[in-house]
Amino acid sequence: MTAGAATRQEGPLALICGGGSLPLTVANAAAARGRKVVLLLLRGVADPALAEHYPHHWVYVGQGGKLRALLRAEGCRDVVFIGTLVRPAFRQMRFDLWALLKVPTLVAAFRGGDDHLLSGVARMFEREGFQLIGAHEVAPDILMPEGALGAAHPSERDREDIALGLDYLNATGRFDIGQAVVVAGRRVLAVEAAEGTDLMLQRIVDMRSNGRLRTPVGTGVLVKAPKPGQDRRFDLPAIGPRTVEGVTRAGLGGLAVAAGSSIVAEPEKLVVEADRAKVFVVGVPTPAQG
Length: 290
What we know:
Helix content is 37%, strand content 18%. It is of the alpha/beta class. The chain folds into two domains: 3-138, Rossmann fold; 143-284, Cytidine Deaminase, domain 2. α5 runs antiparallel to α6 (114-126), α9 (197-209) runs parallel beside α10 and α10 (241-249) packs parallel to α11 (267-277). The radius of gyration is 19 Å and the shape is globular.
């Protein structure tokens, strides 16, 4: 074990929690590996039920000074950002004095895609002595394995769509836009942008309902993969039961994600939902990125 890896196994671990079920999944996995876990819950974003499970504090988005003080008071050097968070407008953020002093840095971070923003915020906290690490580094079991989860498997036609989707994401990811695409019959039907995966899938539902999309139900694939050069400590592609539900409503055949660099939330529930809907969920090798 390297010195860096050893450090990441010592002391309390702080999870700065956005929405969804991933924060609890990561907290449980880290605790099972012997780490004390402290949750920093973002008000209006994190699930209030998280407060029932671990020591916690509530903070508003923008309260960087309060967050810094809480991390120090809890003795947390290692910090993980986990969960969904819609990018707030500057006017929606509740800056405290420490954050106000950092506004020029924050403005520069906001002028770019999500990966640019998260990396910029991370550098601010690293200058304060904290170590920002990936959720998969403290809970490696959350990563998608290679191969199919559940009973269904992709057909050869599906695999062609998957390959096209991965090529597309590799080519466009450098623009720091999104991590997902829907492909059917080697045709790109939808690309994820700021709206996120769920609303992108809803666009497929809407196109079916208004007649703009006439591909047969049960064909087409949602493909997710990290962006080339992405800071993998933050915002790895993630799937869960809700993703399977969205794929099913959209009438697709299944979903494929980059194995080893995508996160699976609630895998047991995901498999039950996929088998019920007869859609495939498959981890595929991450292509060489360039």
